């Protein structure tokens, strides 16, 4: 089943109406069943939302994302304690050993780097730079102690956008990636919480000021897929991130990918990935981790 991400721009009021999300815009009313929604994204400065609706969003495991004046997600409201064995899972998570975390991080981050190389090859990056990235990946250690991921990222972005490019530049490429990664992060956070995991306790990211360390860990393989989607559907049209472009980025979550021979949406694949991650780390079976492969995304007509 394909669930919806509902994007609301300048709505007047959001409230609960008989298990439906009711959106009021001037004299118009729109109704969407909560059971059909995975996330609500709010833009604008005048939208009100009722506490009764927020309570029902939590009960239905629906995330709520708030955007700032630049249309970037800056806040997220997530369900709390809805997983049936929440305490048991958190206790297990707190007991993950450094060895367990390092082993699975090696697998997770390798998926990201492999996808970066695949996307770079798809765009026509010269063979010399592809081989440089492949050599870096071949030296990947358990826990990525030598930061191969950082070195690959440097070569990757330089190869795609030029050596003068930095992720801090004010341009449409970065605006699109920032918005896209924020949507990925929000969707992954909803799924991580829905599986009873604590978002703060990561396997690699350990920033004490970051409430989403584990989310940032698990979304890594999806970043190059978002890069591909942005390259295919947004770049070259406008020199700013339009409303239509933001909707197109959100639509990424409904695109198809094949996981273990099964075709599913990106959003559903995240659930599959998190479930396999829990099995892999708790059973010490890295082979159980689902593989997020750019070729299985591009090959589904994205």
Automatic annotation (TrEMBL):
Pfam families: Cas_Cas1. It comes from the Bacteria. Belongs to the CRISPR-associated endonuclease Cas1 family. It is an enzyme of class 3 (hydrolase). Mn(2+) binds at residues 149, 205, 220. Keywords: Antiviral defense, DNA-binding, Endonuclease, Hydrolase, Magnesium, Manganese, Metal-binding, Nuclease. Its EC number is 3.1.-.-. The keyword Cell membrane does not apply. This is CRISPR-associated endonuclease Cas1. InterPro entries: Cas1, CRISPR-assoc_Cas1, CRISPR-assoc_Cas1_C, CRISPR-assoc_Cas1_N, CRISPR-assoc_Cas1_NMENI. CRISPR (clustered regularly interspaced short palindromic repeat), is an adaptive immune system that provides protection against mobile genetic elements (viruses, transposable elements and conjugative plasmids). CRISPR clusters contain spacers, sequences complementary to antecedent mobile elements, and target invading nucleic acids. CRISPR clusters are transcribed and processed into CRISPR RNA (crRNA). Acts as a dsDNA endonuclease. Involved in the integration of spacer DNA into the CRISPR cassette. PANTHER family: CRISPR-ASSOCIATED ENDONUCLEASE CAS1 1. Signal peptide: none annotated. Transmembrane segments: none annotated. Homodimer, forms a heterotetramer with a Cas2 homodimer. The keyword ATP-binding does not apply. It comes from Companilactobacillus keshanensis. The gene is cas1. Its cofactor is Mg(2+); Mn(2+).
